[in-house]
Amino acid sequence: MAPLMSKPSGAAPATLVYITLGAIMTVWSGIWYMYLNHNPPAHQAVNYICYGFLITGIVLLAIGFILGPLSRWARHAELPPAEATPTAMQNEQTTPTRRVV
User: Fold this and answer.
1) Residue 55: which domain range?
2) Rg (CA), the chain
3) Nearest to 68 by CA among 9, 25, 4
4) Does residue 50 sit within a domain?
5) pTM confidence score
6) Residue 96 domain flag
7) What is the DSSP track for 34-96?
8) What is the rounded distance in angstroms from the CA atom of residue 79 to the CA atom of residue 89?
9) Cβ 54 vs Cβ 30: under 8 Å
């Protein structure tokens, strides 16, 4: 395979990380919110921290869902044009390999 086409975009693993972290943070913040709803804290700062984690989880989920299609578009943009691909593959196959001793 051509060297140009052998390294995939790193956006796909990043998408999975954002979606996973966002989902976990949103779920546990939602559980914490329900707990705080039934057992009001002594200080309002605890509520603000809970809201911050909940909103951060939702934002991470949104970034992950937006980054997914962007990574697919980037993969298409990284590939050489269809007209150049057969020529590049043919050049790579006819080029002799050198041994480094």
Assistant:
1) 18-77
2) 24
3) 9
4) yes
5) 0.65
6) no
7) HHHHHS--SSTHHHHHHHHHHHHHHHHHHHHHHHHHHHHHHHHHHSPPTTHHHHHHHHHHHSP
8) 13
9) yes
Residues in the chain: 101
According to DSSP, residue 82 is labeled: T
The answer as to whether 2 is a domain residue is: no
Using an 8 Å Cβ cutoff, are 71 and 12 in contact?
Answer: yes
pLDDT in tens, 19-69: 999 999 999 999 999 999 999 999 999 999 999 999 999 999 999 998 888
Residue 49 belongs to a domain: yes
The answer to whether residues 9 and 75 touch, using CB atoms and an 8 Å cutoff, is yes
What is the model's pLDDT at position 1?
47
* Number of structural domains the chain divides into: 1
